[in-house]
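Minutes, project check-in
Item: structure for the 268-residue chain
Input as provided by the requester:
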Amino acid sequence: MISVIIITKNEQDQIKTCLESVKWADEIIVYDNGSTDQTLKIAKEYTDKIFTFEGQDYAELRNRAFKKATGDWVLYVDADERVLTDLKDELIQISKSSDKSAFAISRRNIIFGSEQKYGPFWPDWMIRFFKAQEFKTWVGKIHEYGTFNGQLGYTKNSFLHLTHRNLDQIVLKSLHWSNFDAKLRLDSKHPKMTGWRFLRIFITETWNQGIKRRGFFNGSIGIMDCLLQTFSLYMSYIRLWELQQPKSLDQVYKDIDLELLKDQFQYK
């Protein structure tokens, strides 16, 4: 028996096809993180096992969802991923006969509308298929990963990952993730952000994305992705700088308004 778990938040444009790709599973569990769109209405067409939890710890979300699963094997699928037919057949066979405890599944990444296989985009392994009795726990508030007892296997077939749909989606996702990333860096006592640190981060990350991960050598899409990945990391450090200030920027601007009112709009 295979249980599929999908973590959602405002995925109305993607969730239906994702659910269609896994409707062969014995059990579908949707664990929602506070959707305000039509995500849950669509999900109800495919399963009655829908649960909600609003939190910023993604490992906790995945762990809570796992506790709802009753299958011998558990497959985690993101809303922007699709389980292709060959992968479905392979996972069913694995669930019947494999002695491995978990499997990493590669992803075929659709970036700005076309499949990309350079640098980070292939094979892009994700450990997502677990034998329930050998699973331990998910670890990490962001960039979480599953832990388990026993051996890891690798599937021959892949997810299809429909990411980088448009600029709005990429930028909004970057801004969203930067909040978590900056807070984690602050909690780990990251050195105070200064001008030279911003410059060093920009140069280092541009090198990593453009040269080391070969973004600059893969045409327009590679260059766009390289710069956007650098932007994404940069947002985290700008948020970190904000958190490191003795007074929040919101409070700074409120104080300016109070002073203007007090001093009859004389600004010194």
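Outcome recorded: The mean pLDDT is 94.
No further action items on this chain.
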